[in-house]
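User: Is it possible to get a 3D structure for a protein together with its bound compound? The compound here is nicotinamide-adenine-dinucleotide. I've pasted both below.
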Amino acid sequence: MSNPFQADERFADGAQYIAGELRPGTSGREHAVVDPATGEAVYTYELAGTAEVDAAVDAAARAFPEWAGATPGERSEALHRFAAVLGDRAEEFAQAETLQCGKPIKLSREFDVPGSIDNASFFAGAARHLEGKSAGEYTGDHTSYIRREPIGVVGSIAPWNYPLQMAAWKVLPAVAAGNTIVLKPAELTPLTSLLFAQAADEAGIPAGVINIISGAGRDAGEHLVGHPGVAMTSFTGSTAVGKRVAEIATSTVKRLHLELGGKAPFVVFDDADLEAAVHGAVAGALINTGQDCTAATRAYVQRPLYDAFVSGVADLMATVRLGDPADRATDLGPLISHAQRDRVAGFVDRARSYATVVTGGEAPQGELAKGAYYRPTLVTGAAQDSEIVQAEIFGPVLVVLPFDGDDEGIALANDTPYGLAASAWSRDVYRTGRATREIKAGCVWINDHIPILSEMPHGGYKASGFGKDMSAYSFDEYTQVKHVMYDNTAVARKDWHRTVFGDR
Ligand code: NAD
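Assistant: Yes, that's possible. Here is the predicted structure of the complex:
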């Protein structure tokens, strides 16, 4: 089955989208977008150099006054049209996303693309609900109110695991609030970010409001973060790179939003619905081939359910169909690249010396051997402080550990540097209530793991970063709050002047 998306034709003019036009990069370095299912290059482009970053920031700065000055209703209408164009193009987006990421087409069609369209619809509505909380005569002599203003040019950097959704999460709240943006997708996956920006253009969002720089992290990325014309940095990616981005953003005094890595715990209490927990764990661990910052990675199962949970997960993992991502029947696609597959295999191979690989732990042979595939993998017997329990693996690997008392289960769930997401499984409202209060993560699911929605915020605690994507909460990142204060007395000599002039 072949993927019909023709990147070469679609982006023949280059992979830099600046002021409404595609153009080539000038870094002197070529990069290939590779279909991870086959290992074949599907599109080769020249990476952005610093000149393209400068041009994109300049285009965004020029577009800012008009876009920031548009009424909320005008921005809302443009975003509604944008959502409609995305809807018309849904199948093309799904194919391009599957081609560059190796995602099963059903995931692209039924999760990534509709989620992104829904985001556009949500922010079309939310654009009209930007509000300041306080207004009134707090001193008696003055009227105070809050203006929420856009920040300016936002420089965003995104990872490769959900390129379209990351573009949507970064771009939509920023532009709904009146900012303009330069987005740098991961160099492995620029295709759907480019389509996204072109769709915005088709919807009538003015040129320069959304610009895409397809470049490498070290040069184009760092240049964007440090750029004096950029007022805010919004970064999604690994915690290690996030720290570097934070250093540069801090040294240039920029507002910063960081969405970083995760290592989500999955806590199963002994009264849980075992079938639900087993299905939830396998789906939560394998979604997007485990390359999901909120994926279920560490299952802690209370002792009475432990053996049944482990065998249930192993049996269910054995039914998962690896295959051609373009085929609707495929459950699990390849990892993003052979390098990522080897990295994941490295974690599992090192774990063999201290833990048990119950199932998986290998790449498939035969027809799939040319792709970056890796079998669903279940590991048990690892110590809490071992690498496989503590490090973000970002592959189809689930580690299961037992626990005895409820205190222990919650303590183990909190025992990594990360705090992005977690789930707890129980029929007891007091246990689940306690888990929601005591687990330190930006999202806690009860009796489910993974669902996200436009109306609710996504963001981390601890080393998973700070700030929120999606929902009205994201406007706190993409707006600045101005206090405006009017004197109501019309007297020349204000009462408070006595603190300067005394009785005169
Ligand atoms: P990464 O950190 O390697 O790269 C992310 C982006 O940063 C890419 O665009 C890359 O080109 C760029 N980059 C790399 N070095 C840079 C530098 N020195 N300066 C500026 N930019 C630089 O992450 P990845 O491998 O693309 O993605 C996987 C990671 O993303 C995982 O850790 C995952 O948990 C995280 N992630 C987090 C969320 C979230 O919402 N918290 C969502 C998706 C992915």
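The first helix runs from residue 7 to 10. The two ends are 89 Å apart (CA to CA).
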